[in-house]
Write a structure and sequence with these properties.
heterotetramer, A mainly alpha, B alpha/beta, C mainly alpha, D mainly alpha, A: mainly alpha, rod-shaped, B: alpha/beta, Rossmann fold, 6-stranded mixed β-sheet, 4-stranded antiparallel β-sheet, 10 strands
């Protein structure tokens, strides 16, 4: 196989950066979920879309 | 007619509920003193009535305009004199007055009357605003507000920094405004001075309005 | 409408006249940038002459950042921004007024710098009309975009640091276009400077329009 | 759709932003990734052709395998920013919180994907073009400026202010993000009349069937990964927003309690036993 170094660098950086981003995202989610009441975590239910900015 | 009509208004400054459910009705031509400790929510209440604060919860209208949807109209029709004078430091007093008078669509005559009213020394007209004392700045800010002949006056500690003559001017401003049919909300700690010139007083505390006794 | 625009522009220019920030600080800064380019690129005057269009517009854009910052910060002195909000002036008038004042200042800056590069870098000029029209069109674009992104950051503590991040990528096309048109006008690049001038004009019009529409939403209280 | 209530009661989902949908999509992505790696590194052949004139071997050799990550990243980036722009329009038109959060989450993914587009593209360019960077390439320059514009957009999202004003500012910048990148694209194209980029890799006649399939597969996989990240990102943003509002009831109670204390002081004032003015 040719260009092994380039392949490792290219695919490796993609894995690394996406991996770090995903990990940080999930950690942030876990941390926040502990502080927000469960009834506020109705994922993507239709009611969310009905909320307007500024609504109580 | 109800000029100020607030029902359970909550206003957040960041996460902090500066107003926590304020309810207030003020009729046209009334003058109301807002009193209460520092941080009670008096300034926020006045800024709310000026259309400068977003309402988090509750409903209200100022001069018949809805506080959620018509704040642009409200802003044009009220005169707010707060802690910040809204003057440009680099301009002279005269330039500031003329600029703001034109911005609020006051005629030169109305501006002249307002300057007369606040007894601003004409010699100050060419002095940069940054060199004015706090009291002189306050008078200039009051003159700008007076020039637009607001239907609702919102005065936040208008006596602060003023000398004896200036304080008397503010007092007569309140009585004259109500006599002319305008409405006045004034937040002040100078209770003895303001009580005689207002119709009633209410206490603001903890972001709420505690209806107070009628003025003495 | 027009009188409101002139009222705001006149106010901004009068403040500038009193404080002399643009004249005493921004113009010298831009000239210093030109001098530093000269040091950095060696004293070989033919190199400098070749790169004059690019160096010139980079210097203008860098100096424009300072001017935009000044234009925004003079509103947040003693609550003047709220005064404008309460005055009932149409947001588009306020935007155009501030843009006109900023453009006037930038135009002065650009002309001083133009003299600077002609003398310091010894750049030849083939087409004076193209040179001047390009300057006007590009400066209007920079002024309009600068006023819009400046208004976006009004009242923000981190304004100094965020403004360049926001504004420089937006101004990249202006730098490209104005440098090309200058290159044509100075005879150093074989390109059609007039079509670049046309695209710069388009950029300026677009940002004047977008700014007029968007400024109302940006002026609203935080 | 599984509600969080069920999640908590049954304990089936261990992460806070997880739901049945993301969980299933997540497993599909892991399996899909293994398939992708197999396709990209084992099943497909390197790009080797025989030059008709000299008889030498030409082509990209194994470096072509970088394309399977580079192009999906570019497509994800452009998709993500398109979603951000749509979300921004919806925020201004309908004041929709939902779209504001989607726009923000999408722009974050777009920034990551456009950075990776640039990185993988540069790494591929070194052996193929013999340079990491080409100034005269329209797509390179556009992607770079788009990445910087995205950083600006994300900075605007973190400005101070109420949720409403932040959403509005971000929406304006989000719409300008697309307008600006179109302007940059046009001007760079005009500026650099030539490009090194393969005009369209996909329609290249020389491309083999399996290579083409791997290519398409990689794009679909990338978009699926984008959807998963977008759902996760939206939920995190939603939690952040709720967290800001959480405690409002408590804060209101505390605030109102101040009033009662003041009332007591007032009573004292009225009876002449104290003065607090």
């Amino acid at each position: 196989m040719t260009h092994v170094g380039y392949l490792v660098a290219g695919w490796g950086s993609a894995f690394l950066i996406i991996g770090i981003y995903t990990w940080v995202l999930i950690q942030r989610g876990n941390r926040l979920a502990k502080r927000v009441p469960v009834e506020k975590q109705r994922w993507m239910s239709a009611r969310d879309e009905a909320e307007r900015i500024g609504d109580a | 007619m109800s000029v100020v009509s607030l029902r359970n208004i909550v206003v957040l400054l960041g996460q902090f509920p500066a107003l926590s459910g304020a309810t207030l009705e003020v009729q046209a031509g009334e003058s109301v003193l807002l009193q209460g400790p520092n941080g009670a929510g008096k300034s926020t209440l006045l800024r709310l009535c000026a259309g400068l604060q977003r309402v988090e919860r509750g409903d209200g209208s100022i001069l018949g305009h809805d506080l959620h949807r018509e704040r642009r109209i409200i802003r044009r029709r009220v005169g707010l004199v707060g802690h910040r004078t809204m003057l440009y430091d680099d301009l002279t007093t005269g330039e500031n007055l003329r600029f703001w008078a034109r911005a609020v669509r006051a005629t030169p005559e109305e501006l002249d009357q307002a300057i007369e009213r606040m007894q601003i020394d004409r010699r100050l007209m060419d002095v940069p605003t940054r060199q004015l004392s706090a009291g002189q700045r306050r008078r200039t800010a009051l003159a700008v507000a007076a020039a637009r002949r607001p239907e609702l006056w919102l005065l936040d500690e208008p006596h602060a920094g003023l000398d004896q003559a200036g304080r008397d001017i503010v007092d007569s401003l309140i009585t004259d405004a109500t006599a002319a049919g305008a409405t006045v909300l004034v937040a002040s700690h100078e209770l003895d001075r303001v009580r005689p010139v207002v119709d009633r007083q209410v206490t603001v505390a903890g972001g709420l309005i505690l209806e107070g006794a009628d003025a003495v | 409408m027009l009188s409101d625009v002139l009222l705001i522009a006149g106010k901004d220019l009068r403040v500038e006249l009193r404080s002399r920030i643009a004249l005493n600080q921004v113009v010298p800064f831009a000239l210093l940038v030109l001098v530093l380019f000269g040091f950095a690129l060696d004293a070989d005057s033919s190199t400098l002459a070749t790169f004059t269009p690019g160096l010139y517009w980079v210097a203008v854009v860098l100096a424009a950042l300072l001017a935009v910052h000044r234009s925004v910060s003079l509103e947040d002195g003693d609550g003047a921004d709220e005064g404008l909000l309460m005055s009932g002036l149409h947001p588009a008038s306020v935007f155009l007024g501030k843009a006109v004042a900023l453009i006037a200042e930038l135009l002065l800056l650009a002309l001083v710098l133009l003299g600077g590069v002609l003398i310091l870098y010894g750049a030849p000029v083939d087409d004076v009309t193209l040179l001047l029209l390009t300057t006007v069109a590009a400066v209007i674009g920079v002024g309009a975009a600068g006023t819009l992104y400046g208004a976006l950051l009004s009242g923000q503590r981190a304004r100094e640091t965020i403004l360049p991040i926001l504004l420089l990528p937006v101004l990249a096309p202006v730098v490209i276009g104005a440098s090309r048109a200058f290159g044509d006008a100075m005879g150093s690049v074989a390109t059609d400077g007039w079509s670049w001038l046309l695209s710069l004009t388009g950029f300026a019009m677009l940002y004047l329009a977008v700014g007029s529409v968007a400024h109302g939403a940006l002026m609203e209280e935080a | 759709m599984t509600t969080t209530q069920e999640v908590v009661e049954t304990g089936r989902f261990d992460t806070a932003t997880g739901s049945r949908t993301t969980r299933m999509l997540g497993w599909a992505l892991i399996v899909g990734l293994i398939v992708l790696l197999w396709l990209a590194f084992v099943a497909t052949d390197p790009d080797i052709r025989i030059d008709a004139a000299s008889g030498d071997e030409i082509g990209q050799f194994d470096a072509v395998r970088l394309i399977y990550v580079h192009v999906p990243m570019a497509i994800v980036a452009y998709t993500a920013f398109t979603v951000t722009a749509i979300g921004s329009v919806m925020v201004l038109l309908r004041r929709s919180v939902w779209w504001d959060l989607v726009a923000g989450a999408s722009a974050e993914i777009g920034a990551v994907a456009s950075a990776l587009t640039l990185i993988t593209g540069s790494i591929w360019g070194r052996p193929i073009w013999n340079t990491y960077w080409r100034w005269d390439d329209v797509r390179l320059m556009t992607t770079l400026v788009l990445f910087m514009l995205a950083l600006g957009y994300l900075a605007v999202r973190r400005l101070e202010g109420s949720a409403e004003s932040r959403a509005r500012r971000a929406a304006i910048v989000g719409i300008l993000l697309v307008i600006n990148s179109i302007i940059v694209n046009r001007s760079v194209e005009w500026w650099a009349s030539q490009t090194l980029h393969q005009q369209s890799t996909i329609t290249d006649a020389a491309i083999e069937d399996l290579t083409l399939f791997t290519f398409m597969y990689a794009i679909v996989f990338g978009l699926a990964g984008y959807v998963w990240l977008l759902i996760k990102g939206f939920r995190v943003a939603w939690l952040e927003r709720q967290n800001e509002r959480f405690g409002l009831v408590e804060a209101l109670e505390q605030r109102r309690a101040e009033a009662e204390r003041t009332d007591a002081v007032n009573a004292a004032v009225d009876t002449g036993t104290g003065d607090q003015s």
